[in-house]
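WARN no homologs supplied; continuing
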Amino acid sequence: MVPLSFANEELVLTKGHAVYWPRERALLVADLHLEKASFYARHGQMLPPYDSRETLERVADAVKQTGARRVITLGDNFHDVEGTASLEPHAAGMLEALTRSLDWLWITGNHDETMHRTYGGTLVEELDIGGIVLRHQAKQGETRPELSGHFHPKLQVTLHRRRISRPCAVLARSTQTDRMILPAFGTLTGGMNAGDPAILRALQPSQAIDALLPVRDRLSTFPLWREAA
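OK structure emitted
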């Protein structure tokens, strides 16, 4: 786990693609996309139906690792509106156990704007905690500190002649505020190049935008965009 200063708060980036907020004892996870495999199966593409179990096991591991007492999801919790009904009994039991033992807050996203069942927890569109806005998709022009998901950013670079692609956070800083897009947490989530114009545009206005990747207990920073002098 690697500490990160964000909007006068101390956050922690985990190697498992989550963010821990020590002051709130809150684990933040974006884009779980539970039941993505069953979605594809309904449309004729058969995938191993265990993605939800694996994702929830990773949530439980992150809770244990950080000591979190609260979990806040940042939208696209299920891959589609049918996902809550498709969750198989074992995964459903895992999720219900997590939501019973933790203060669990679901923020909704574009894939699950109308969740039919939450399996416990509280359903909200967005949150403001201590002046930091938590929502699914970054809002262009936002002047408050903001944590979001949606874009599934991945760092794609060549190091020592090796092409690497890793889920990463994207941090935008300006004189006004800090804003960050979290990597996707779900097992079957793909990714978008962290330097994609859609991501850079969503984080404007900014003075600097960087990809952040925890590597061997250190925070590696990769510049993506700088304001013209």
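The CA atoms of residues 127 and 199 lie 21 Å apart.
OK
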